[in-house]
Amino acid sequence: MKRIGGFFGDSFYRFGSIVLFVLAWQTLCSTGLAPGTFVASPAVIAETLAKWAVNGFLARHGLISLSRALYGFLLAVAVGVPLGFLLGGWFKAAGRILDPLLKFLGQFNPFALFSVFMLIFGLGETSKVAMIFWVSLWPILHNASLGVRTVDPLFVKLARSLGLSRPRILWRIVVPSSAPYLFSGLRQASGTAFFMLIPAEMLGAARGLGWLIINAQINYQIPQLYAGTAIIVAIGLAIDALFRFLEGQVVRWREKAAV
Amino acid sequence: MARHVSIPAFLVLWETLSRSGAIRAVFFPPFSQVMATLAELAVSGELWGHLSISLLRALSGFALAALAGLPLGFVLGGHSRSLFELLDLPMEILSQLNPFLLFHLVILVMGIGEAPKITMVAWTCLWPIAFGAMSGARGVNPELVRAGRAFGLSGVSILSRIRLPAAGRQIFQGLRLALGQSLFMLVAAEMMGASRGLGFLVLDSQETFQLRKMYAAVLAIAFLGLALDALFGLLSRLLVPLPPGQSANTAGD
User: Fold this and answer.
1) What is the structure's pLDDT at B53?
2) Does the structure's ipTM exceed the value 0.90?
3) Looking at beta carbons, which residues of chain A come within 8 Å of B213?
4) How many CB atoms lie within 10 A of CB B124?
């Protein structure tokens, strides 16, 4: 059972709660009930964001964070999907043998490993990308191998007896049948990738949204802190909505095809 | 039997590569030395001090999140349609709010003791638990609830006999996900501001270049995660038997 909706759901009612919340927040700040030393009002946040948008600050830090998340994620897709297919489909025995090892490696905490990555890759971009790769890899790998295991072997046998070549079997049968699992893995991984990037940037980076947050925290710049938070939440929601949408397309297509 | 070959094989590979000098032993000490360091830490009691405080933080945060998240998800998913519509979107927005964003504010409000770390773990755990309970409660077959009512079951027994068992698997999936994430986030929190705990041990040994100790701490965290996950898997198998015809593999989605 999937949750319906997502960010761009249908009901006006749902957005009403957000408007109410923002209004209440603004009122609390304007009346001084919420002290400005701890809480920035929505108006101040909007003002800060507008300033950042104009002077290019937002684009600079946002793009660097997004590109880190994207590179790590794409790398995880490039490794995880083929590996999952191989282990779940073609080399089932190897998959069974490697399964405990992969579970074991998946338990290695990315933040603890961050220290190791910094030793190997240095302080540059690579260590951050490696960390995002590491957290994205496991859901993608797991779901790819799960998906390929649910492919109906009858279809594969049929295709083989009809003389389809291996790449065509892969592209026409295995990939479409396992697509719902693949996309569920991609959605999980994309959410985690961006979520984990922020603390990674807080621990060791000189640019990016995580750095922006830690910088605002250290210098006690409340408006900047809240504006950065708002941007990060918005990007997280957008990524989630995008992958939910893609997943919905794939699942709906599959249901139609299954009839 | 073959299932248990891969981990030892990996460890042997690590050991050989490091000892033969194929990878630099300064950066990647052999597994046996790391385990020896781990044993030293365990004997001296240092490990237990860090482990126990991390475990305490993770579990109390997790327990708090379960206490709040399960009823919240259940009420929103099962009982009140309008409340669900009202709160679904704000909850989704809040779930995107990374606990690290407001870490310093939390510290300002709560002080630098245990409370901020436990709060961060609880915040992280809350969302998978609440969403799991919510989708579980929404998936309960309404016919079953109606049948229960027709037989004159009270609200409490409908909850305990029908709703909870029917939603059990999703509830446990949410809990399991949360437990895994709790440790992830806790380690990061301990690296950012703590003087005890496994995350602190990793960062401290890294900064003082005691790499064997660092790897020992990394391994200890992995072992702790595996142990918690295995324990939880066992618990969920005992409490929520899989429906007939489903194997453990296909239940993962």
Assistant:
1) 92
2) no
3) none
4) 26
- The tokens describing B230, both together, are 């295995």
Nearest-by-Cβ selection for B191 from A142, A150, A203: A203
| CA–CA distance, B158 with A154 (Å, rounded to integer) | 42
Query: Does residue A91 sit at the B interface (CB-CB below 8 Å)?
Result: no
Distance CA A122, CA B48 (A): 31
Q: What SS3 state is found at B29?
A: coil
The span from the CA of B153 to the CA of B147, in Å, is: 9
Asked, for residue A71, whether it belongs to a domain, the answer is: yes
Q: Which of A172, A180, A112, A109 is nearest to A143 (CA)?
A: A180
> Could you tell me if residue A26 is inside a domain?
no
Domain count, chain B: 1
Evaluate whether residue A31 is within a structural domain.
no
Q: What is the CATH number of the domain that holds A163?
A: 1.10.3720.10
pLDDT at B106 over 50: yes
Interface test with A, best of B83, B91, B92 (most A CBs within 10 A): B92
Mean per-residue pLDDT, B204-219 = 86
Query: Which amino acid appears at position B198 of this protein?
Result: L
Cβ-based contacts of A19 with chain B (< 8 Å) = none
* Residue B59 belongs to some domain of the structure: yes
Q: B135 lies in which domain range?
A: 46-241
The SS3 call for residue B249 is coil
pLDDT confidence bin for A76, thresholds 50/70/90: very high
Within 8 A by CB and 6+ apart from B132, the residues are B73, B170, B171, B172, B173, B174, B175, B177, B178
Average of per-residue pLDDT across A183-200: 86
CB-CB contact of B221 with B202 (8 Å): yes
Cβ A235 vs Cβ A190: under 8 Å: no
Test A101 with B218 for CB contact under 8 angstroms. Answer: no
> What are the DSSP calls for A165-204, one per residue?
-HHHHIIIIIHHHHHHHHHHHHHHHHHHHHHHHHHHHHHS
Identify the pLDDT of residue A77.
94
